[in-house]
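Narrative of accomplishments. A recurring question from our advisory board has been how the design workflow behaves on a single, concrete structure rather than in aggregate. To address it, we present the structure tokens for one chain from the evaluation set, followed by the sequence designed for it. No filtering or post-editing was applied between the two.
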């Protein structure tokens, strides 16, 4: 029993990260910020640092990297976020988020920016 609790504690520490911060996301953060503006993500989301991004249809994206799940169904990792940006209906067919034709490279850069938000 004791060994099980020790293993569970160790797994939780690894899964949550030692410092509690999100894993790093690769990509060009400045390009990602500009892409979020170009794709008009701010018409649905409040996105700190993106001009006129004050939408309230989708969730605010400040601090999104610290959330446990994306869209309530995906564990929050940079890869899952990039995949969700590209093809949101694959994760949740009922999501209101539209597929915008974002490429893999663009999604990686957008994710990199979103992961910098406090």
């Amino acid at each position: 029993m004791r060994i099980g609790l020790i293993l569970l504690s160790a797994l939780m520490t690894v899964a949550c990260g030692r410092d509690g911060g999100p894993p790093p996301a690769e990509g060009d953060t400045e390009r990602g910020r500009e892409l979020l503006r170009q794709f008009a993500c701010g018409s649905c989301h409040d996105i700190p640092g993106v001009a006129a991004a004050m939408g309230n249809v989708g969730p605010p994206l400040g601090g999104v990297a610290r959330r446990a799940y994306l869209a309530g169904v995906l564990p929050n990792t940079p890869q899952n976020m990039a995949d969700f940006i590209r093809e949101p209906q694959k994760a949740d067919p009922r999501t209101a988020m539209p597929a915008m034709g974002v490429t893999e490279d663009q999604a990686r850069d957008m994710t990199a920016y979103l992961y910098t938000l406090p």
